Amino acid sequence: MRSLDLAREVCEHYHPGLLKALAAVPYAERERAGGPVIGLFRAHDGVGLLVPTAFGGHGADPVQAVAVQRALGASSPSLAAAVTMHHFTAAMLYSLAGHGGRLSTAQLEMLHQVVPGRQLMASGWAEGRTQANILTPSVTARPVAGGYLLTGAKKPCSLSASMDWLTASVAVPGEDGRGELALALVPAGTSGMSVRPFWGSDLLAGAESDEVVLEEVFVPRELVVRTSEGDPHRLDDLQTAGFVWFEMLVSAGYTGAAGALVEAVMAGERGTEDERAGLAVRLEAAIAVLEGAARAVREGLSGEAAVAAVLVARYTVQDALPVVAAQALELLGGLDFVRGPDHARMAGAVRALAFHPPARAGAARPLLRYFGGGPLELA
C-alpha cells in the first residue's frame, strides 16, 4: 500500500533494518509482555529520532516522525505506543536545551548521554496535557540537603521495564509554601524506585505499561527543572510542546495499525473494488488530516493554535480508525478470523487511542470556546 510503503521508507532511512528485524518476529511475540520489540528499537538507534543532531540524534521533523510512527504501528502497536512516551519526552526536553541557560550543566550532560548510550526515557507525566493543572503531579518532592526526596507513583507507565530515565512531573514547595510544578530526571534503578504489575490486558502488552513507584527516591537538585523568576514560562512552554508532540505521535501509531489491516485487504483483494477503494479512502483521509497538522507544526504553528490543530486531527483519526478496522476485518472474512488472532488483536489495539488523554468529553467545552474566539484551556 503506497502510503504505508512511504512511511516504511522514512523509517528505514532513520532506523535501517528495524522493520525487517521486527517482521522476523511473530506478531504474538511482538505484542506480548516482555517481548523483544523495545530491545530491537533500542538496537536500531530508535532513541535518537527526535533528538537534535547537536546531541547526536537524527533531528527528525514532525512530518517525518509521524511517518516513522505509522510504520512502527503497522508492525507493532505496542512498540509504537511505548516509544511515543520516549519521543514526546525527548521533544520537550531538547526544546529547552535549544535555549541557552534554560537547563543546568547536569541536565545537559544527561541529554548528551541519551543517543550514545541508547537510553530510553519513560514518561511520568500525564501523557501530554496543556495549561494549568494538566500535568497535575502524582509525585511529591520533599526538600532535603542537596535535592529532593520523591514519593508517589505513575500508572500505567510505558517502558517501565526498559527505561534508563524516568522524567516525572513533581510538586515542589514554592516560595509561598504552595506546590509548584517541576520536572525531575530520575535514573532508573535509583534506590526507592520499583515497578509493580499493573497492565492486565493482552492488547498492547508489549508496551511495558506497569506501575512505577517512588518511595523517598533522592534526586539531586541539579536534575530538577523548575520555573524561575527569570524564565517564568519555562514549564508552560514545555508542556505545550509535549502536548502537541504526544497527540501527533500517539495518533500516528494507531493509524499505522489500521493501515496494516487495510493493506492486508488490498493484498488479498478482499471484497469488491468499490469496498476496497472506500476503505482505503477512509484511511487516507485520516492520514491526511494528521499529516496536515504535523506539517503545520513543522512550518511554525505553535501555542494554542497548534494544540487545537492536533486535537482536531486526533479526534478525527479516533473516529475513523475503529470504522476502518471493523470494515477491514469484515472484508478479510471469517476464514482469516479462524486461522489466527493477529488481525483481530490489531483491530482491538486501534481502539485504545480513545483512552489516551484528553478525553473527548473533557476537551469539548475548551474547543468550543476556542472555535468561538476564546482561549483554549484544558483542565
UniProtKB/TrEMBL annotation:
Domain of life: Bacteria
InterPro entries: Acyl-CoA_Oxase/DH_mid-dom_sf, AcylCo_DH-like_C, AcylCoA_DH/ox_N_sf, AcylCoA_DH/oxidase_NM_dom_sf
SUPFAM superfamilies: Acyl-CoA dehydrogenase C-terminal domain-like, Acyl-CoA dehydrogenase NM domain-like
Keywords: FAD, Flavoprotein, Oxidoreductase
Gene Ontology MF, one: acyl-CoA dehydrogenase activity
PANTHER family named in the record: ACYL-COA DEHYDROGENASE, ACYL-COA DEHYDROGENASE FADE28
Record-given protein name: Oxidoreductase
